[in-house]
UniProtKB/TrEMBL annotation:
Keywords noted in UniProt: Amino-acid biosynthesis, ATP-binding, Kinase, Nucleotide-binding, Proline biosynthesis, Transferase
InterPro entries: AceGlu_kinase-like_sf (IPR036393), Asp/Glu/Uridylate_kinase (IPR001048), G5K_ProB (IPR041739), Glu/AcGlu_kinase (IPR001057), Glu_5kinase/COase_Synthase (IPR005715), Glutamate_5-kinase_CS (IPR019797), PUA (IPR002478), PUA-like_sf (IPR015947)
Residues in PUA domain copies: 352-396
Protein's name according to its UniProt entry: Glutamate 5-kinase
Listed Polar residues bias regions: 1-11, 46-55
Domain Aspartate/glutamate/uridylate kinase, residue spans: 61-293
GO molecular function: ATP binding; glutamate 5-kinase activity; RNA binding
Species for this entry: Cutaneotrichosporon cavernicola
């Protein structure tokens, strides 16, 4: 309630001796500690109100909590701050801190608070207007947080980031050091985008993505995306009473096609369920368990972390993930990308694209390759880019068709998640409604929608188009997430039309043969065979190009264009020098 007194609210609840801890001395090393540089324990043994302290059984963790605009201010003018909710967040954070956890808050709301301060009804159009409102509101917002946290003697710090801060490795590491120092000092960093200097090309765009990036910077164990619904659903629960909760997700790519992304998005915020999926994809790849939950039930965090995976416990070892507080848990990847690889894959803008063949893709995936690409595997280059810039790695391969025979399911047979998995393995989705007649229709419709490229949507929202039981299931083609594209606003789109590709390929061949000065027959043969390989491109319709990762170019785009398809020993003869036998290094496969 906007009218409630925040300090009263804090005092009342914090007066109960519910929590916590004197000296947080974890029995085992937490994942966050083992991944990051040495750090001291949080320095706040007391929560400031003298309440009794008891030892937590949950190992200490690093926890990022993100609040969207809808949780910070009311949905309608004059956009008063949601003081009761914010107070609950403050209490929860302080309790987590007292249990020994390190906590980072990612707080949207600068524009909303700015609107209130200026007595405006809407943020209008135009970037500069929003930037001005954010500049007005950010000071007010951080003052509000400081006020609330000060009631419990919890120091905070403001961190404003832009995309450019993340793209530059030195700035990224500096940000990491600052976070680390703050957390070691027992401070709660409060992060927002630095809207004043963020132009559209270098914007995170939404704070869900920013929170995922912050989670990687601090090597978080958990990312909580607080929002205005309890969890993700198979359809919009506000419209469809039969919408089912999705409790556990093991594979974001797969679930993307099966849940509704139409459940969120307010007039002030820029995020929504889609951006939460992207954030979950980014964070889980970095080894961060990600939870979508209702901001009005923030205290559920305690139950969620105590029953979920943690530093010393994998998801397999946890029971009751489907029970307990209602939320959607995206389980962290068992093999999280190392910090630098994650940074290359998700933190950097791609300046161009290197298209490789399937053999090269397989080779790069092998451990002994060291994530480096030889020129022989390069099919095409899209630039311009300089050496040492990040490039997208795209594999050109024969299209995958569904394995015959297509399966059909009789009406009487319950459709189970495992049947939706292309490899016959267990599905990532764990929903208890799978056996219901509704589920059969929903799942069959979902499977059909998976078959059409890019069809993401509200499953079950258009029953007319849902295939009837007995309709063949169409297997999904593996495709990379949209996260890369959304994180990479400066990147170029690969030419998709066959005619376009034919032209660029032919130009590339002309350029090689035209510029080659060497009389070396061996090099001539290499060039001819590279050219022949390009010309021998089979029927375009049978081929597809799929983004599989990112890496750092070792030569510029023109140079790679000239040595593509060749053996490494020809690099020096063609270019006149050889910096490396590899054309792309530090490849992070997604
Ligand atoms: N950074 C801006 C807006 C970011 C934003 O809209 O995020 P969200 O409300 O999480 O979708 C602000 O503080 O108002």
């Amino acid at each position: 309630m906007a009218s409630s007194n925040p300090s009263q609210h804090l005092q009342q609840d914090m007066g109960k001796p519910t929590v916590t801890i004197a000296t947080p001395t974890p029995t085992k090393t937490s994942r966050s500690q083992s991944r990051s540089r040495p750090n001291t324990r949080p320095s706040s043994p007391d929560n400031g109100n003298g309440s009794a302290i008891s030892k937590s059984k949950t190992p200490t963790m690093t926890i990022v909590i993100k609040l969207g605009t809808s949780s910070i201010v009311a949905a309608k003018p004059p956009y008063p701050p949601r003081l009761q909710l914010l107070s609950s967040v403050v209490e929860t954070v302080v309790k987590l801190r007292a249990q020994g956890h390190r906590v980072v808050l990612v707080s949207s709301g600068a524009i909303g608070v700015g609107l209130r301060h200026m007595g405006l009804k809407d943020r209008g159009k135009g970037l500069s207007r929003k930037q001005a409102l954010a500049a007005i509101g950010q000071g007010q917002l951080i003052a509000l947080w400081d006020n609330l946290f000060a009631q419990l003697d919890q120091p905070i710090a403001q961190i404003l980031l832009t995309r450019a801060d993340i793209s530059d490795r030195t700035r990224y590491l500096n940000a990491q050091n600052t976070f680390s120092e703050l957390l070691n000092m027992g401070v709660v960093p409060i992060v927002n985008e630095n809207d004043t200097v963020s132009v559209s090309e270098i914007k995170f765009g939404d704070n869900d993505t920013l929170s995922a990036i912050s989670s990687n910077i601090v090597h978080a164990d958990y990312l909580f995306l607080l929002t205005d619904v309890d969890c993700m659903y198979t359809d919009n629960p506000r419209v469809n009473p039969n919408a089912k909760a999705v409790r556990v997700v093991k594979d974001v790519t797969e679930i993307r096609k099966q849940v509704s992304t139409a459940t969120l998005g307010t007039s002030l915020g820029t995020g929504g369920m889609e951006t939460k999926l992207i954030a979950a994809e980014l964070a889980t790849a970095a080894g961060v368990t990600t939870v979508v939950m209702n901001s009005t039930k923030v205290e559920d965090i305690f139950g969620i972390i105590s029953s979920g995976p943690g530093p010393n416990r994998n998801a397999d070892a946890t029971e009751h993930l489907e029970t307990g507080p209602l939320c959607t848990r995206f389980l962290r990847h068992a093999k999280a990308l190392k910090d630098r690889k994650w940074w290359i894959a998700h933190g950097l803008h791609s300046a161009g694209t290197v298209v490789i063949d399937e053999g090269a893709y397989r080779a790069v995936g092998r451990r002994e390759s060291g994530g480096r690409l030889l020129p022989a595997g390069v099919v095409r280059v899209e630039g311009p880019f300089a050496s040492h810039q990040a490039v997208r790695i795209v594999v050109r391969r024969k299209k995958r068709f569904p394995p015959p025979p297509l399966l059909t399911y009789p009406e009487s047979e319950a459709v189970t998640p495992s049947r939706m998995s292309p490899d016959g393995g267990p599905s990532s989705m764990d929903m208890d409604y799978m056996a219901s007649p509704l589920a059969k229709t929903v799942i069959t419709a979902a499977a059909a929608s998976i078959g059409s490229v890019g069809s993401v949507g509200s499953v079950g929202s258009s029953p007319d188009s849902a295939p009837q039981p007995g309709t063949p299931l169409i297997y999904p083609t593996l495709s990379l997430s949209s996260s890369v594209a959304s994180l990479d606003p400066l990147s170029r789109t690969a030419p998709t039309s066959p005619a376009m590709r034919a032209v660029t390929d032919r130009l590339a061949v002309t350029s090689i043969t035209g510029e080659l000065q060497s009389n070396d027959a061996d090099v001539g043969a290499a060039v001819a065979s590279a050219a022949a390989a390009v010309n021998a491109t089979p029927v375009e319709d049978e081929w597809e190009e799929v983004e599989v990762g990112k890496g750092l170019a070792q030569y510029n785009s023109l140079e790679i264009e000239r040595i593509k398809g060749m053996k490494s020993r020809h690099i020096e003869q063609v270019l006149g020098y050889s910096e490396s036998e590899h054309v792309v290094d530090s490849i992070a496969l997604l």
